[in-house]
Design brief:
The chain is mostly beta strands. Helix content is 0%, strand content 62%. It starts with a strand and ends with a strand. The model has no long low-confidence stretch (mean pLDDT 95).
């Protein structure tokens, strides 16, 4: 009922920046409760990178001060600004949304993932 579509990944040198976008869309009324970014590096478990709720934001320690999550409510889009990128930030980044619809209540949705590669 709701789709999350990510964009903005790519290849960047260490120290560079990228901005990821995640747009939520659907044919029914929906309300975004929580939006998060996760990442999964090869051979590792998926980890939470940043989360935005109605109360505030939180980040995993390794990205604090470098990454910023933000949201455009009018466009139903969440962003992840990534600065001072490091090779260890290389991963597939996934958008995750806890989204409410009348039909299903609050359900967790995932985007398709976007590759971020940081070269040293």
């Amino acid at each position: 009922q709701v789709q999350l579509v990510e964009s903005g990944g790519g290849l960047v040198q260490a120290g560079g920046s990228l901005r990821l976008s995640c747009a939520a869309s659907g044919r029914v009324f929906f309300k975004i409760n929580i939006m998060s970014w996760y990442r999964q590096a090869p051979g590792k478990q998926r980890e939470l990178v940043a989360r935005m709720t109605n109360i505030g934001t939180n980040y995993t320690d390794s990205v604090k001060g470098r990454f910023t999550i933000s949201r455009d409510n009018a466009e139903n889009t969440v962003y992840l600004q990534m600065n001072s990128l490091k090779p260890e930030d290389t991963a597939v980044y996934y958008c995750n949304g806890n989204i409410y619809t009348y039909a299903q209540g609050s359900v967790e949705y995932w985007g398709q993932g976007t590759q971020v590669t940081v070269s040293s």
